[in-house]
Write a structure and sequence with these properties.
The protein is α+β, with helices and mostly antiparallel strands. It has five helices and seven strands; from the N terminus they run E-H-H-E-E-E-H-E-H-E-E-H. The chain is about 30% helix and about 30% strand. Helix 1 packs across helix 2. The longest helix is centred in the middle third of the chain and has 15 residues.
Length: about 190
């Protein structure tokens, strides 16, 4: 397996991985499966300031993970949300863990101070993954989403990435793509903050 930065040409594979989660589960609250073109737009938009990594085996994309803004308001800019999705036929092989193991240090190197994971409940696998990587529960939105004929809770988990200095340095968003590529290739070291 290899980790690398997502490319626009990965959009079809990423859309295919994501489709069953949208169509068949409440793991994501999207209800319409995004097209390849929509996924291409998402990769381009998110990759401007945040990392989007894929795990590959040969030419096959087995999973992906990315950071994104936690909220839109400016004071939230030091916090990121994280997401990871693994192909349904490649689960339980450590792919999610490997993706997060590269993604979280990258977010730290960029100057983000906290990562948040929203998990539709119940989802023991996702809760276990996040908690094994140092995320701690911070709260639950009760019956916040309606999908597949039922109301669903969303739990939130947090992981501190760096000390919350006062005042904080601005996150280094401009180099997210370059840093992700170098980190995935083992050619970058993470800067100390």
């Amino acid at each position: 397996m290899n980790l690398r930065t997502a490319q626009l040409d990965d959009a079809a594979a990423i859309a295919a991985i994501y489709a069953p989660y949208v169509r068949d589960t409440a793991i994501t609250f999207e209800v319409d499966v995004p097209s390849e073109e929509e996924m291409r737009r998402r990769i381009a938009r998110i990759s401007r300031a945040h990392a989007w990594l894929v795990c590959t085996d040969g030419d096959a994309v087995l999973g992906y993970a990315y950071t994104s803004p936690h909220r839109e308001r400016a004071a939230y800019r030091w916090a990121v949300d994280v997401a990871v999705y693994v192909h349904t036929e490649a689960q339980r092989r450590g792919i999610g863990r490997a993706l997060y193991a590269a993604l979280l240090p990258l977010a730290t190197a960029q100057g983000y101070t906290a990562a948040y994971g929203g998990i539709a409940l119940p989802n023991a696998s996702s809760v276990g993954l996040h908690e094994s990587l140092g995320f701690t529960p911070v709260g639950v939105y009760r019956a916040v989403g309606y999908k597949l004929g039922a109301w669903h809770d969303v739990g939130w988990w947090e992981r501190a990435l760096a000390p919350r200095d006062t005042p904080p340095a601005e996150p280094h968003t401009a180099n997210a793509v370059e840093w992700a590529a170098a980190l995935a290739k083992g050619k970058a070291t993470l800067m100390k903050r």
